[in-house]
Amino acid sequence: MTQFLGTGVALATPFTKENEVDENALRRLVQFQIKNGVDYLVVMGTTAESPTLSKVEKQRVKHIIKTENNGKLPLVYGLGGNSTSQLVADLGEEDLEGFDAILSVSPFYNKPSQEGIYQHFAAVSEASPLPVILYNVPGRTGSNMLPLTVRRLANDFDNIIGIKEASGDIVQAMQMIRDTPEDFLVISGDDMITLPMLLAGGAGVISVMAQGFPAEFTRLVNFGMQKKAEEAYKIQYQLMDGIDLIFKEGNPSGIKSVLELKRITESFVRLPLVKASSELNSALSVFIKQLK
Length: 292
Hints:
alpha/beta, TIM Barrel, eight-stranded parallel β-barrel, 13 helices
């Protein structure tokens, strides 16, 4: 699955001030990623504010991204849930033409045991028409998918090809890299520790920061993949303050502020999220100017 090595970007959904999907801004956003060298795009992830989109809006967003991408980059579609039976049904009904894999988050709110997580993804594996990338994000789901569970899934199901590991625990990530098959992709879901994960043998990142700074973050990842640590850390240290800032008031409020400052999209988000504060917006503006 070499098409998922390197820099993946979790696309945001731009909105107008009337709270509608901003289709023209979405097209600009896709082109901004393509022109600046990212390796693949993730559609309908957390950053897309997918829980706030209607089924009709999701289909429209999906169509626009596929059309604008026009086969240039691999596409991953976010499809998860905390009802296994409903997710299996969704996998059978969703039009996934033009997508190369699905990204499926570990069940949230229910707080399943490790065996429950294993059985959930066993069912997903059987139902999915596409390769599956697991998504572990304990800060949002309320439960942690442990390395032993990931190892079992990686060994037992050929179409489970990787994991977006966003626990923020570098030791856990290293255990996953060590204990899973060589061709299993352990992908960083945490921008700040992407480089250490790459140097430990990780497969890349599904990034928020790269959406606003695709050229810079892709260079960092490429150096990391090449094990050029000195060059990579130079970029890492330039980006660190910005990474902290974009998550300071929640995602995607911070990165949407960046995208507005770069005149790619507006910074509108949907409730229960709110726009970045004027203080954060000012700090991000200073960061962008300093980065140049």
